[in-house]
């Protein structure tokens, strides 16, 4: 087991930052409120190779499944224009 390091001399700027820091109340919801089950429907849709390539590339960069990204874009579009 590694011995715990105790620091006794810190640079002034770190010391000041720690002393001036604020405690922030926990703003995260409990785990059972993190995932909201949505009413979804499965569909078959033809999309351009260009669009699929774009979302797959973005998916690799962000780690978000490309189908989820496409769903979010469609949801945002529907939300914007559904209530006009």
Question: Your description of this structure?
Answer:
- This protein has three helices and no strands.
- The chain is an all-alpha fold and 84 residues long.
- It has a domain at 43-84.
- The protein is elongated, with a radius of gyration of 23 Å.
- The N and C termini lie far apart (64 Å).
- The model has no long low-confidence stretch (mean pLDDT 85).
Give the key terms.
3 helices, mainly alpha, elongated
Brief synopsis:
The protein has 84 residues and is mainly alpha-helical. The chain has helices at residues 12-20, 49-62, 66-82.
Q: Helix and strand succession? A: HHH
Sheet with the most strands? Answer: none
Q: Into which percent range does the helicity of residues fall?
A: 40-55%
Determine the strand fraction and express it as a percent band: under 5%
Helix/strand-derived class? mainly alpha
Mean pLDDT over the full residue set: 85
Ends distance: 64 Å
Kindly provide the radius of gyration, computed on alpha-carbon positions and rounded to a whole number of angstroms: 23 Å
Say how many strands there are. 0
- Low-pLDDT stretches are none
The outline comes out as elongated
> What is the count of helical runs?
3
């Amino acid at each position: 087991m590694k011995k715990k390091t105790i620091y006794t001399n810190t640079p002034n700027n770190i010391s000041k930052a720690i002393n001036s820091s604020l405690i922030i109340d926990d703003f995260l919801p409990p785990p059972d409120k993190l995932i909201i089950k949505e009413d979804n429907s499965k569909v078959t849709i033809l999309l351009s190779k260009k669009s699929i390539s774009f979302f797959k590339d973005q998916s690799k960069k962000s780690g978000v499944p490309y189908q989820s990204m496409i769903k979010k874009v469609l949801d945002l579009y529907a939300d914007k224009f559904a209530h006009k």
